[in-house]
From TrEMBL:
Organism per entry: Psychromonas aquatilis
Domain SIS: 121-260
Keyword annotations from UniProtKB, A to Z: DNA-binding, Transcription, Transcription regulation
Protein name, entry field: MurR/RpiR family transcriptional regulator
HTH rpiR-type domain residues: 1-77
Domain of life: Bacteria
Amino acid sequence: MKTLELIKKNLETFSKSERKVAEAILASPETAIHSSIANLAKTAEVSEPTVNRFCRRLNTKGFPDFKLHLAQSLANGTPYVNRNVNEDDGPEAYTSKIFESTMACLNAAKNGLDTNLINRAVDVLTQANKISFFGLGASSSVAHDALNKFFRFNIPVSCFDDIVMQRMSCINSSEGDVIVLISHTGRTKPLVEVAQLARENDAFVIALTEKGSPLAEQSNLVLSLGVPEDTDIYMPMSSRIAQLVLIDVLTTGFTLRRGAKFRKNLKRVKASIKDSRFDKISEEDIEEI
């Protein structure tokens, strides 16, 4: 059931203060989507904790998560672009909507992540003989970002966004190798087949994908972000940003787990590329210019 329908159906069951929040949202749902919790509380003449309590009554994790669900219950948006953007939106409107919806998605993803699984993934990655990152389409850019991060570490790492190269890499894999597959939907057939092939060759498969998807079922470990973005209809946006942040989380966990000696190696890597950049311009230099 859509969020607005859920609010209308349960209107009589809310407390007096919660009902004020519901009525403020029903009066102008578009405004509520782009409001801060403080502004909505002021409009409804209630406290901020009351707004949070109202959001949790609707089975959301808090105000940002509620705004995400509310946005999805409104208009279908512009097909092949973004669910929250309308055809007649101007620069100010669509800029605000994209930032707001992305921040809401990131918050929902953060709250939905199982940190025990994050810890397990970091364990596997730090003990790997070799790490490979695979992605297709929009997820390929996330795989390349992962390569950029992990390439700085003293461990063999590769990245492929070509299905033939992915299959050959899996065939050449062995026990101790880790293959990270990135797919928002988890329904991309070639990637599911790659996961099967990797496991047949004793590689450990980590999937950044939707829980319960075909890809998840073929993986050893699943990190699910729970970003409700329908990429069958809309351009991948928030899901891709959430995937990038999850790569940063894994990178950070890897670095901390390997300890101080390992961070000294990172310092040497940084020093080796220092000469490839111009020096920063100081305020004094700017004044002289």
